[in-house]
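Hey, I'm writing a tutorial for new members on how sequence and structure tokens pair up, and I'd like a real worked example in the thread rather than a made-up one. If someone can provide the structure for the chain below, I'll link this post from the tutorial.
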Amino acid sequence: MSLLRLASYNLHKCRGLTGPHAPERNLAVIAALQPDIIALQEVDFRLGARPEALPRSLIHEATGLVPANMTTTGENSLGWHGQTILMRPDLAEQAVLRRLPLPGIEPRGAVVLRLPRLTVIGVHLGLARSSRRAQLARITAQAARIADDNIVLMGDFNEWHDSRGLESLAGFRVIAPGPSYPAPLPQFRFDRIAMSQHLKLLKHGVFTGAQAREASDHLPIWAEIEQP
């Protein structure tokens, strides 16, 4: 049986809880987590040209992973709307990535990574529930059109409720591994994974190692699935 370790992590622009900017902490967390694929949020600063908060030049040496090859928000950005996906280099060779603009009060978008037998969608949903509902409706409608039956949607859902606002995910298995925000004393399950019902989930959790409680305001979440 071949396993695939998936993860999602909101980096909070690599500032920890209050600063300073220290991406080495976040890279150490990612390295200790040992994912095959990880969806990242808030990898860029928000103001001006939105330069990368997670330096592209440090990623592979620190984690063994590479970022998805995509058109980013700006010339100096790592991600699109602050998001990117890192993966093993052998997976990157087979990957096709597209960007999916999303509706809502704030500018948002999803990052869609297509592999030969799996589609991974990274998200950072809006702050208003009305926006989140519209965004999930758009994502699920597009996923049905562009992907096969093996779909994993993961990221910062910004939703504290266990079911409200997630109605468009009725056809998916929604996993909230545990409270992941705020990192020092987690109370809210903002970070989630939704996957096609037939995909075999083996285990999942919230990662607290490698000083994750200090590296960001979110803890990373992870899940192991049987590789389709």
